[in-house]
Amino acid sequence: MIARGIMLGPDQPVILHLLDITLAAEALNVVKMELLDAAFSLLKEVHVTTDIIEACKDVNIAIMLGGFSRKEGMERKDMMSKNVPIYKEQASALEKHAASDCKVLVVANPANTNALILKEFSPSIPKKNITCLTRLDHNRALSQIAERIKVYVTDVKNVIIWGNHSSTQYPDANHATITTTNGERPVKELVTNDHWLKNEFINTVQQCGTAIIKAQKASSALFAASAACMRD
Ligand SMILES: NC(=O)C1=CN([C@@H]2O[C@H](COP(=O)(O)OP(=O)(O)OC[C@H]3O[C@@H](n4cnc5c(N)ncnc54)[C@H](O)[C@@H]3O)[C@@H](O)[C@H]2O)C=CC1
Ligand SMILES: O=C([O-])CC(=O)C(=O)O
What we know:
Elements: E1 14-19, H1 25-38, E2 43-49, H2 52-56, E3 61-64, H3 80-97, E4 103-106, H4 111-121, E5 130-132, H5 135-149, E6 156-157, E7 160-162, E8 170-172, E9 177-180, E10 183-186, H6 187-190, H7 194-198, H8 200-216, H9 221-229
Parallel strand pairs: 1-2, 3-4, 4-5
Antiparallel strand pairs: 6-9, 7-8, 9-10
Helix pairs in contact: 3-4, 5-8
Bound molecules: 1,4-dihydronicotinamide adenine dinucleotide and oxaloacetate ion.
1,4-dihydronicotinamide adenine dinucleotide binds at residues 19-21, 24, 65-67, 69-70, 86, 107-109, 111, 133, 136, 165, 218-219, 221, 224.
Organism: Quercus rubra (Northern red oak)
Keywords: NAD, Oxidoreductase, Tricarboxylic acid cycle
GO molecular function: L-malate dehydrogenase (NAD+) activity
């Protein structure tokens, strides 16, 4: 998606630095081969490495995906002991080697905590440049409402996700609206079942990640990549 211009736009050439651990080096090379085979016109160079310093050198944008992923029966916070040390090391490498105005998107869980670690251990990167991926929760909330009212997802607006990317988040549709042929109408009015909005809707959005892991024993890459690359 990045190489096709979906994240940075159709006129922005990109050089990708791909980092993984030594055990995954061969798989990483395959990713490079696939990217080159695709001959994306915006993709100018692909560097694969298992060296964090090489990976961070002069990067303008860092998308932090690496680490342990959640398995069935785990909460995202259960990965803290494994992923926090990784994020300390990666933050220090970004601090020393990335471009000074580098923008950082933390995807790996627990995403909010990892973003906080990054902020603490890379003090020269402006705080406002560091964010973590909760857009996925927002998208999930939009889709749940669209399905319920039978409208297009693009017609749903002003849903808010409060809190962390975790099962304690609060998806809030109190100010959400639907674009109709008669103008904007409140979601609360169109979802006639208030009990659904206060219970099942919230619970479903909070538990979407868990449901995917239960169903396919891994989280899916597509929805996270799509949320990370959205430009609206
Ligand atoms: N914030 C969000 O909305 C979402 C977050 N996630 C999180 O994103 C992360 C990645 O998810 P998946 O791609 O499904 O997991 P995955 O397990 O398929 O991939 C993780 C990759 O990180 C690599 N890795 C492990 N330690 C590393 C290190 N020290 N340095 C560099 N790379 C390292 C692994 O070798 C593996 O290739 C997980 O933490 C997952 O929980 C996933 C989906 C949505
Ligand atoms: O649940 C997970 O571990 C992956 C993730 O963050 C999500 O799908 O929301």
